[in-house]
Amino acid sequence: MQTILVVDDLSENLELLSRILQREGYKVLSAVNGEDALAQLTASNHIDLIISDILMPIMDGYEFCRQVQQNDRFCSIPFIFYTATYTDEKDKEFGLKLGANRFLIKPQKTQDLLNIIKEELAKPFKVEKNNITPDAKSPLIESEQQYLRQYSSRLVHKLEDKLLELEQKNTDLEEEMAKQLQLKQHIELLNADLERRVASRTKDLLSANQKLLEMDQIKSMFIASMSHELRTPLNSIIGFTGIMLQGMSGEITDEQAKQLGIVKKSASHLLTLINDVIDVSKIESGVVSITNHNFDLIELIKDVIQILSKACLDKQLTIRSNLPESFSCFSDKRRIKQILINLLDNAIKFSNEGEIIISLTQRESFFTVTFSDTGIGINDDDANKLFLPFSKLNPTQANNPRGKGTGLGLYLSQRLANKLGGQITMTSEPNKGSNFSLILPIEGASK
């Protein structure tokens, strides 16, 4: 039985293609990105054919193909690009130069795709590939630079296409908002005569308000869509700078390493902001689901402490916990972990010395996890806007790490806590420290 490796970051694409191939008698392995696919290749005894998408997170199809062609063990495996995003003729030319046997545009008719697969499997294994092969140090640098230039060109071209698409969507959204504004003005005129016609106009007013709410949801959906389109190139930038920093693409100077480090750090910060925006837009659009199950809250808190232990060690802070041996609760473990990480991260970020105390208490059917720090504290003006989106502390406060966060963490955490049937409370004293408490029901959090 011949084995085919299918690589695509969309689960529905993987499932559809896998079913088609399995019906034809092929054994199918699947991967969600290039890095995952390389691991599959390394672990597998034998793979007869690779079918790969291009636009994927972590490692895209182009880089995956390049690494396959540079590996003596894998380079003879037939490679087919199967993409719906990279459809330009230059995209195809670049893919074939990397060493791919075929470059197919989605969707293909099932029988046509199967015939192409059979043709490639029927061919004898290739001894050489028309790809960038490092023979010596000088050709390696030259070919690597050539690859980076062409790769960057294709990425910029695709970003330009996406930008044009987003600009068109933005234009359509502005036109729709203008229409809604006209509708709102019409409602205001009707309200002047509300006392006489209140009964007949109430239905119209409720309808108009509903449309305004829908517009707000459309706005959130637009932000989420835009953010998704930005995440993929950002992941590529982060991944590529990481490769260069590791020296995998050739030696670099200390100054180049410093500059690349700045690029990677900035891209990671922007990716964090985009992920926060996506989570906020999901909450505001009402598409966040809550999945409850039983788990030990103490183990979860210890896991969170372990995750942020290095950040705490870097600032020479001490974490002291006042926790029971175990505490069982029924809630969404992943969302609670997200909130706890944010609260502990804030405590570390705004503390320059001293300790952070983590405690757990129970009152009736609710539990409270409290983070007490010895940081800079929060004044009353900042406290009033602390849980608003994109809010940060007053930059005049001493030792304030303003600018290091997105301004969405506490807003997002509060909204998630509300979704779970609870809330986050805060008490603080400037220059002495703050106490942030997560209060949630032990069981029966709303879904």
Q: Please, could you describe this protein's structure?
A:
With 447 residues, this protein is an alpha/beta fold. The chain has helices at residues 11-23, 34-43, 61-69, 89-97, 110-122, 137-192, 194-245, 254-285, 297-307, 309-314, 333-349, 380-383, 409-419; strands at 3-7, 27-31, 49-52, 79-83, 102-105, 293-296, 318-322, 328-331, 355-363, 366-373, 423-429, 433-441. The protein has 3 domains: 3-122, Rossmann fold, CATH 3.40.50; 137-285; 293-441, 2-Layer Sandwich (Heat Shock Protein 90), CATH 3.30.565.10. It contains 13 helices and 12 strands. Helix 1 links the parallel strand 1 (3-7) and strand 2 (27-31). Helix 2 packs parallel to helix 3 and helix 9 packs across helix 11 (333-349). It is globular.
Defining key terms:
447 residues, Rossmann fold, Heat Shock Protein 90, 5-stranded parallel beta sheet, 5-stranded mixed beta sheet
Topology of this structure?
Elements: E1 3-7, H1 11-23, E2 27-31, H2 34-43, E3 49-52, H3 61-69, E4 79-83, H4 89-97, E5 102-105, H5 110-122, H6 137-192, H7 194-245, H8 254-285, E6 293-296, H9 297-307, H10 309-314, E7 318-322, E8 328-331, H11 333-349, E9 355-363, E10 366-373, H12 380-383, H13 409-419, E11 423-429, E12 433-441
Parallel strand pairs: 1-2, 1-3, 3-4, 4-5, 7-9
Antiparallel strand pairs: 6-8, 9-10, 10-12, 11-12
